[in-house]
Amino acid sequence: QVQLVESGGGSVQAGGSLRLSCAATGSTRSRRCMSWFRQAPGKAREGVATTDTSSDYLWIDDSVKGRFTISQDNAKNTVDLQMSDLKPEDTAMYYCAAGPDCVNWRVSSSRSYWGQGTQVTVSS
After folding, report:
1. pLDDT category, 3, cuts 50, 70, 90?
2. Which one of 79, 115, 121, 123 is most buried, by most CB atoms within 10 A?
3. What is the mean pLDDT of residues 106-123?
4. Does the structure show a pLDDT above 90 at 56?
């Protein structure tokens, strides 16, 4: 079993920064691929970034590329999402998700485990 706990959300003004952290416990094999998703009110959940914790593979969605970075600390079993130059359209609930691999990682149903989410609100 894998458990994921997000932290670091909050409210900021446009142009500000936040760092989200996802702490993972449980089977390493089951959470090899760690991802961040977000869901704004009335919109579908979308994949923002992912990293394969067993390799250097990572991927950032074009909508946030250059502003968001994903990083992993395998010693601490954490995956962080550093968000800079935040925009009002980044407002959403952000979720950490895990799966055994990154194949089709952007398909929510392919992720095996989810955190409870952390709210990010960006005001203009």
Report:
1. very high
2. 79
3. 96
4. no
